[in-house]
Write a sequence for this structure.
């Protein structure tokens, strides 16, 4: 069953990503210092980016303790929060980003299930 799901997910990834091989991704991840949840979110996001967006993304990690003024500007109410600025549409993902399928959907790399 897991293999079947994995093959389906890979097929959706390939079909959703077709024609986007050169699109640049601009991502901003808000975290709270070096907490376990923040470190997990950073590691999970970097793993996804290196596997699916290698060489095509810019990731800015913002520690809200060091730059609290950005919270209001970007309207952040929970952390960790990932903002996908480009390609449009802008999307926000909240949590430690451990649910890979949801992260891929949020980044527009996998077609939404029908």
């Amino acid at each position: 069953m897991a293999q079947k799901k994995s093959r389906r997910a890979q097929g959706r990834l390939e079909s959703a990503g077709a024609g986007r091989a050169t699109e640049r991704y601009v991502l901003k991840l808000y975290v709270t210092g070096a907490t376990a949840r923040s470190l997990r979110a950073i590691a999970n996001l970097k793993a996804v980016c290196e596997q699916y967006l290698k060489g095509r993304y810019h990731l800015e990690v913002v520690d809200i303790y060091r730059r609290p003024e950005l919270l209001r500007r970007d309207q952040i109410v929970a952390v960790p929060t990932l903002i996908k600025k480009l390609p449009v549409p802008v999307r926000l993902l909240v949590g430690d980003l451990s649910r890979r399928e949801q992260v891929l959907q949020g980044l527009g790399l996998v077609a939404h299930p029908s």
Summary: The radius of gyration is 15 Å.
